[in-house]
Amino acid sequence: MSDMPIKGYWQASDGKWYPPAPPATVPQQAIRPSDLGPPPYQTTGYYQPEPVRQQQHVTMVNTTKSPGLAIASLILGIGAFFIALLPVIGFTTVPFALVGLSLGVAGLSRALKGFEGMGMSIVGITTNILALLVTAAWLTVFSTAGNGSEGSLGATPTIALTLVPLLSVVVG
Rounded to whole angstroms, how far apart are CA atoms 80 and 132? Predict the structure, then answer.
């Protein structure tokens, strides 16, 4: 061959010119339009916004059967009971015991409807009532000691006036 390259030929490192490789032949398969899937967009020539969707109403339903109220009642009851055992600070547990008692009753009513936590609700109600009774006992002791009359009949109305509201809360 000559020193002039022919169009498409290439020169190797040995100095010889070689013809270009033949093009790879790929077998042609018939492509159906259904193989391509839907077109990514419609080509109508102008912009079409997405259709406005109807507003959907979502109703949230608690599907878990969690004993959350019973657990809260139990925690408040245990805490209120042990703090109620302290002489002066024990009076501060009355609101916690009342909230725990109401949560225990609510948890018990949920447990009767099929939710979990019946045992915890019962124990929570019991510990909250015990906390209120311990607080009432301390209140009775302090009101009797403050009266100055050791065991006389003068202390009886004070004890009765102290216990009646607390017992009505516990029973009611």
Answer: 8
| 29-72: pLDDT as tens digits | 666 666 666 666 555 566 666 777 777 777 766 667 889 999 99
Share of the chain above pLDDT 90, in %: 36
Sorted by where each begins, the domain ranges of the chain are: 68-171
What's the confidence (pLDDT) of residue 44?
59
d(CA 64, CA 81): 30
Terminal alpha carbon distance of the chain: 117
Spatial contact of 93 and 135, defined as CB atoms under 8 Å apart: yes
Question: Once rounded to an integer, what is the mean pLDDT over residues 72-94?
Answer: 92
Give the residue among 119, 81, 77, 84 at the shortest CA–CA distance from 102: 77
